[in-house]
TrEMBL record:
Keyword Methyltransferase appears in the UniProt entry: no
Protein's organism: Streptantibioticus parmotrematis
Protein name, as recorded: Lytic polysaccharide monooxygenase
Residue ranges annotated for the Chitin-binding type-4 domain, each copy included: 41-208
Keyword Magnesium: no
Signal peptide: 1-34
Amino acid sequence: MRKTSSRTSPARVRRRRLAVAVVVAGVVGASALATGSASSHGYVSTPPSRQDLCANGTVTDCGDIQYEPQSVEGPKGFPAAGPADGSICSGGNARFAQLDDPRNGQWPATQLTGGQTYDFTWTFTARHATTDFEYFITKNGYDPTKPLTRAELQPTPFLTVPYGGKPPASNTITQQGVIPSGLTGKHLILGVWNIADTGNAFYSCADVQF
């Protein structure tokens, strides 16, 4: 009578390992899709935002944000909701806390003039269904040596661009607005990209000088 070996053949072991790898990959992929973390993202590139300056090497010692400037995602509903005061520029993400660091007011700033028409540019690595884009700016008296708070921002956006649930048409878009008049010194513009089909938004802070 022919004996059956208790040892599993190398070919069978390889097939089992392959099957396990496929299952694990499927679980990881499904998890990423469920959280949305694999497909996020965009940031203000004109005027250069803090994450843009870190990504292009103009500013150093930025931590993780230099590798993924598009990932500053946090709860939407700003200013009634959203990231806490002091962590607005990072979207409330501790990984990107360098964006909230005022660097003693030494972030490079783009020169602007009150009343001028200006083209704001967003750069995307993924384009989501969009409610709108909003742009807030600080009040006179803003202290660029301290982390941003709501109290230092004008309460309503100076520019809102509605999208009605549609995604941006390309990986870069330009939106034209008028810079508020009457501002002097250094200020901060906060761009907020409100996503239509999730509870999140993307935040982007750009330093400017009047």
